[in-house]
Specification:
alpha+beta, 18% strand, 565 residues
């Protein structure tokens, strides 16, 4: 930040002006003593070069003594004045902080201070000349860091290397504090030799990567956008873990208002399950009676200040493999989420993600793939757990009340398994991705054609089965009709006392009766039906020629009846 203010607007102007006024008054008040001191210095110079000088007056020692005493008094008064001013400059809360403010003010007045910086929303702001002073190594003295309520910094102090083969005394670790420390919101006093390694924003951070591409296991390239929300300023989520003898560790979802168990899910990674089981076995009977519930998430101060997480986020910065540069800690979560998404996408097919055969309420992408992806990314961040177990040994059931008096409740523990985001103290709040778009625009059409050809083939096979069944039914019905005709004809042949002509008439009537039946008519070939009709017309023509009986009985049949009588 370049300082373009006027000279009288700068904070060091008034302390220096008042100091100059005091100095001018001091010179005016003790001008004789100062003149005597200057004369003494001039005579001393003449003595050194061998020239004659005037002897000092008798009251010269008294004047010099008075001048020294008043100079000391001036320094004391000016220091008291600076100490009084320092009480109103910074809001110090204890004597140690007031001493630090006083020392920084003296350094600032005499221009001996290091870079004074401001951190706003995780961004370091400093004056241009102070940045140049720090880069050139001239800022050897400690300085101040002013951080807003959403910022924190990491300061590192250089340690002097130990001499080779130097036998040093064993000093307690408390005598040598860690050279790296984190400073939260407020005023940070930097020790001599400390440098600011980085600043972080404690608010919720969100990152989005567009044009993310990945391949399914059937070789289809898809494109999407990945978004993630994470933070350093919130405590780790606490998961309630219970042990089921048949299925292992499970996570209970408990409503803090109704104390009702709303869900029992398998949300833990395998390595986290192993760590929890080992810790429970080694922890013994260290239990508590209090159930820890998550606080409502917010994006307002005060934020949770965890020094280890802040230091890990700043010092464990990722390196870009393209140019070798260090990236900011806030750029890592999105890249990790993209890596997890590509890995998960490579295990499924495009048809599995978007199946055309499932009902509308069932979708693998939204019901299985997205929840699993979100769970895996969140488990890569900081996470805590609290182990519970029923006293009677029975497993808890869904939609039942969680009564703390019925459970053994262990202390809250934080998972420490190495994870890419957990090692950097990052908590993942939420993560997701947009709908997949195939790079090849012909994929949806090809997929629809493949789906249609599959069902067309299945339809043809089904129709062939039905056609075969129809043919079988027709053949069975035709055989049954033939058996019925044969039976009717056999009954005709058994009739006694008929001539050939009468027998022929009866046979024709039986065939005509079978042909006139709608069920049999559909089964007989058209040629057979046409032949029967021609046979009928031939006989009917003969009857119209005079051979028919006036009562409608054929002559052959009537004659046979008379002879039978």
């Amino acid at each position: 930040m370049d300082d373009n203010r006027h000279f009288y607007e700068k904070p060091a102007f008034w302390p220096r002006l008042l100091g100059g006024i005091f100095l001018l008054l001091f010179v005016i008040a003790f001008r004789l003593e100062i003149w005597q001191l200057l004369r003494l210095l001039f005579d001393f110079i003449l003595l050194l070069i061998g020239k004659p000088y005037q002897p000092l007056s008798a009251n010269t020692p008294q004047l010099l003594l008075a001048l020294a005493a008043n100079a000391v008094l001036y320094v004391v008064i000016y220091s008291i004045f600076l100490w009084w001013v320092s009480l109103f400059i910074l809001p110090a809360q204890n004597p140690s902080e007031r001493r630090w403010v006083f020392e920084r003010l003296i350094e600032y007045v005499f221009h001996l201070h290091g870079p004074a910086v401001f951190i706003r929303n995780g961004k370091l702001i400093a004056r241009k000349e102070e940045v140049l002073q720090e880069e050139t190594g001239l800022g050897r003295y400690a300085s101040l860091a002013f951080m807003d309520l959403a910022s924190a910094i990491v300061a590192e102090r250089a340690l002097a290397p130990k001499a080779v083969n130097q036998a040093g005394d064993k000093v307690p670790a408390a005598a040598h504090p860690s050279p790296i420390r984190a400073l939260g919101p407020g005023i940070g006093f930097l020790y001599p030799g400390e440098r600011i390694q980085g600043a972080v924003d404690l608010r919720k951070q969100s990152r989005k990567l567009d044009n993310v591409r990945g391949f399914t296991n059937d070789g289809i390239e898809l494109e999407t956008s990945v978004s993630i929300v994470f933070t350093l300023g919130q405590a780790a989520d606490v998961q309630t873990v219970v042990n089921y003898k048949d299925t292992g560790l499970r996570v209970l979802t408990i409503d803090p208002d109704t104390m009702k168990i709303s869900g029992i899910t398998d949300d833990l990674d395998p390595d986290d399950k192993i760590a929890i089981e080992e810790h429970i076995k080694g922890q013994g009977h260290k239990r508590t009676n209090e159930k820890a519930f998550e606080l409502p998430l917010n994006n307002r101060p005060p934020f949770n200040i965890n020094e280890d997480r802040i230091i890990s986020a700043v010092l464990s910065q990722p390196r870009n493999i393209r140019d070798g540069r260090l990236e900011k800690w806030a750029d890592l979560p999105a890249r990790v989420a993209v890596s997890v998404l590509r890995d998960e996408l490579s295990h499924v097919s495009y048809d599995q993600l978007y199946s055309l055969d499932r009902p509308r309420q069932e979708c693998y992408l939204y019901d299985t793939f997205k929840p699993d992806f979100r769970r895996k990314v969140k488990n890569l961040g900081v996470l805590s757990y609290q182990f519970v177990q029923r006293k009677d040994g029975n497993p808890p059931e869904k939609d039942t009340l969680f009564n703390a008096s019925e459970y053994w409740i262990w202390d809250v523990q934080q998972l420490s398994n190495p994870k890419s985001l957990r090692d950097r103290g990052i908590k993942v709040i939420d993560v997701g991705f947009s709908d997949f778009n195939p790079i090849d625009k012909t994929i949806p059409e090809q997929r629809f054609d493949s789906w249609r050809s599959h069902w067309e083939k299945k339809t043809e096979l089904t129709n062939a089965d039905y056609d075969l069944e129809v043919i079988r039914i027709k053949n069975h019905a035709r055989a049954q009709a033939q058996r019925d005709i044969i039976y009717n004809l056999s009954q005709v042949f058994k009739l006694p006392g008929y001539t050939r002509e009468a027998m022929a008439i009866h046979i024709f009537q039986a065939l005509e009766s079978a042909a006139s039946n709608p069920a049999t008519n559909r089964l007989l070939p058209r040629d057979t039906i046409e032949m029967l009709r021609n046979f009928q017309r031939l006989l009917m023509d003969d009857e119209r020629g005079g051979n028919a009986d006036p009562h409608g009985v054929p002559p052959a049949i009537g004659g046979s009846q008379e002879r039978s009588r």
